[in-house]
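Supplementary Methods S3. Complex input for the adenosine monophosphate-bound model.
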Amino acid sequence: MVNIDQVNFQNKRVVIRVDFNVPLDDNFNITDDTRMRAALPTINKVLNDNGMVVLMSHLGRPKKNPDPKFSIKPIIKHLEELLGRPVQFADDCMKAADQVNTLKPGEVLVLENLRFYAEEEGKPRGIEKGEEGYDEAKKAVKASQKEFTKTLASYGEYYINDAFGTAHRAHASTALIADYFDADHKMFGYLMGKEVAAVNKVMTDIQRPFTAIMGGSKVSTKIEIIENLLTKVDNLILCGGMTYTFKRALGGKTGNSICEEDKLDLALDIIEKAKQKGVNLYLSFDVVVADRFANDANTQVVDPMNVPDGWEGLDCGPESRKFYADIIKKSKTVLWNGPCGVFEFDNFAHGSRALAEAIVEATEQNGAFSLIGGGDSVACINKFGLADRVSYVSTGGGALLEAIEGKELPGIAAIKK
Ligand code: AMP
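Predicted complex, serialized as structure tokens:
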């Protein structure tokens, strides 16, 4: 595998898979351009070398070809502003060869939404798995997927994957395309490289003690991650809504708190596995409960084993916060996924803020490597304005979670092989 910095792209055509799946409002204005900005270093590297850039991405979940609601065209103007140069557009990703072939060094062409074609994902549309005719339809898409992938590959002498957000999908543009390039002509972009390095630091190259904080609403969505982390961490802090499933499993009374009654055995199993593996598993011993699910609800601090009837736990309590903060500050590796309270309500964001501040302190004063990722914890650290004071905030929700589950991501494996 070659490193992007080792390559001079002068006069070379480079096809780059980016994640331009940005949120658009009803008037097709971009409401958050983070993903576009994240791809700029890679695009600019090729342009500064005087290479020719062909950008490809998906946007949303189109159901047909074309599906104007999901066109990539509305984002071209903003890309021109970000790059400070004109950007060309190919309104059919399968009919772009003429435009690709007339590109000059320093020019950029963006392909229309790859998912206008079912071949990108390799599964039929308008018919669900299990329905009559699905298997035949899938076979047909798979048969034409090769030609689709080959056409995309023909647009570049080099292939760069910088779309970590879709690295967990074995799609044409994220994984299959890599087979058309030898090891010297395919590579990670800068963003992908940073994400892969961050994952390595919590999965393989671990400095100890390693503390993982898993929060969020439910244990059921985090089982595989927790099980994999039990083989890696020294300390596992389980907080947020899942606290109450554990407390109930331990014989507690949890009032109206969120609780997955069908996961009580699983919770006990996790506690037992942590013991066997010598992992310190921590659950909150005081929590802030509310008399209704609202920011201005009445509150009190109670033992989560004994939540009064009619009250629900919405944040971890002040003593648990201090206890967690101490553990975090002494750690050399910290991974945080999932808030420890309903942080969207300011009155129940104190626990998550205390954890975020402890992570910052571990990073800045203890030299810890800290990775924040997977959905809501990113929104949470951004809300507190602390995102640039931790080691890395991942851009890939689902992709990061699958990587922490220990799965090999197809988009990464395809470049490495
Ligand atoms: P997840 O998507 O599973 O990471 O869950 C994130 C959500 O969990 C956030 O929207 C939080 O508001 C929510 N959450 C955190 N703690 C609690 C709690 N004690 N009760 C209910 N929801 C919670």
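The pocket of adenosine monophosphate is lined by residues 215-218, 221, 240-241, 258, 313-314, 338-339, 341-344, 375-376 (CB under 6 Å). The longest strand covers residues 13-17.
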